[in-house]
Amino acid sequence: MSKVNRIWRGARWRDIAARTLAAVPLNYAVTSALTMLIARLLPGGGAQASIAATMLSFAIFAGLAMTAFAVRSVARLWIGLVAAGLVAGGADWLLISTGGRL
Amino acid sequence: MKGGFRQSMAWLHTWTGLLLGWLLFAIFVTGTSAYFQEEITRWMTPEVHSVPADPASGFVAATEWLQREAPGGSEWSIYSTGKRAAGLQLYWANGPDAPADAPTSARLDGTGSEVFARETLGGWFLYRFHYDLHYINWYWARWLVGIAAMAMLVAILSGIVTHKKILADFFLLRFGKGQRSWLDAHNASSVLFLPFILMITYTGLVSLATHYMPWGIAANYTDEGKFFEETAPWPVPAEKAGPAPLAPIGPMVEQAERRWGTAVGSVRILNPGDRSAQVIVSSAPDAGMSIALRSLTFDGVTGRPVRAQDPSGAATVTEDTMIGIHAGRFASPLLRVLYFLSGLAGCVMVASGLVLWTVKRRAKLPDPERPHFGFRLVEKLNIAAIAGLSFGIAVYFLANRLLPLGIAGRSDQEIDSMFIAWGAVAIWAMARPVRRAWLEALSATALAFALVPVVNALTTDRSLFASLAAGDSVFAAFDGAMLLIAAGFGWAALKVARRPSGQGRRKTAARGSSARGVPGTEAV
Amino acid sequence: MIHLLLFLLAFAGFMMLCAARDRHQRDLLGRKLPAKTAVGLRRTGLFLLLLAYPVAGVALGWGYGAVEWLGHLSGGALLTVLLLTRLSARGAPGR
Asked: Which end of chain B has less Cβ packing within 10 Å, N or C?
């Protein structure tokens, strides 16, 4: 059988799908939460912090996307990303609800 | 993933590159053309003869023109087309007495008289296409372009980690050595122009950053509008307060130029001829590397400055400089040429990468004479994307000269011609055997580009010879560039024609190449 | 003039870096250089590439100079590789 046919079958296919989902939609959510966190934490006023965080976000996204295809265990990848997203998102919520720049 | 870090990164490089490669090629080609956007527009409006003029006096003449042609308006904007085109673009909002279909824009030459040229979007359309595409909603178009740019960034980074060795010793790169030439072209264009390619990808994402990642603003602002008000204020006309004459514009422009030491790029007048009039003078976007504009607001009646706005803040300056370096408006002619060549290298990188995908797989196919559907699709899409777009752009230029001048919606018809030609090549590629399709599409593209100067000579009085004799560098360079591009496609067509078609030979060559020990051939 | 100087610095720098490597000396010079010369060439080449930046910075401004410097580095590297392709094709056909 051709190599391509083998690729698109079974475990390999599920592995790629799980990684792609982690690398794109989940990554976007995690990067967004991290970007918000950086925008809240950076000094120098709301506008400057927001711009700096936004510019950094693309490096974060690219780094996480590559990580998603580099790490060995898909399970650990998902656990790690979801945990990072929850921690960052929780911190965002806390920082915003305690007020400050908004 | 299975097989270690390098293998998974090579896999990522291959597939992100392939999936978004066709769109990336279109973005790279049209974006590269945008480095000569003004020059393309000048070529596409041959009626306009460039008038060298002092920009400051241009703003004064434009104001007089507006006082005559658009009195009672609530807002006038005068944009200098910059140091490369020496014209003025005017926009205005008509007053309540004006008929609903009264014009709201005009183009003046440097001396302030209206320019009448054929209706065309010129180089601006190609520039705009590189991030807004066409025929589809700009909002989703920008998302598509952003996804492609991010795929590009991931493809570049994974390419770097996979092929570290090439970076360390790129002297091993060779051009045009037999079957390896696609790999050579891909490696050389990406490695030698890596600073540009990384820069253009990241700064491209930054240019539309808040579109893709609005959450950084959302963290600090409940309302996005407040953020933009703070970072890029855009005053609107106040309530009118009764007539009063507008103070002369000339001294305001001069004062701003003295204060900044750079040229003025635009003048906005709110409520001209009213007591509440304001004149906002902004610096030229091609004056420095950062696109951030400085502005000075004057009271429109007394002519005294009331407010100065200068970009500040490290993040703002970084962002505006990144966007400025991406667009390269500040570049001198020589640096502009370097930008253009780097952009071409990017086009070559994407195109050769796409072709490489098929070249590498063809030898490994179970039956190279009868490839499976996915393989055939990639082959055909490559022709449609690479030769099709190039042919379409040549037709866009030809249509500019050949469509009748007075027809309705002329600029749209020029654009439609481009996409019809592009689509025709795509359909042709689907219908023909791959090799013949490449040969025919590349030959047609070479012919179409070669025809551009010919048709220009036949339909205008500004042929290549006339331009050379008159010392008109823009027209001469444009025609010359068309001939060079035609020669490039002709050369490519010749290469395809001479390529040995035997499958067996390709197989051994492919195996031979990976045994040569040059990094980059394995692991894909 | 400054643009030509920058390009020549970049080109000379890459040629020296290249000549410093064993496997290119045969293509480039037809013989192998002593190790000491190679080290000297590598250092000088690197020095020229780095020197081009302050030259560009002083002449054209540090920001503008940086962009132009990177552009010339790419151009110099491209010419080096093109030249090597020529030389190696002549020196050792079908290498």
From this structure: C
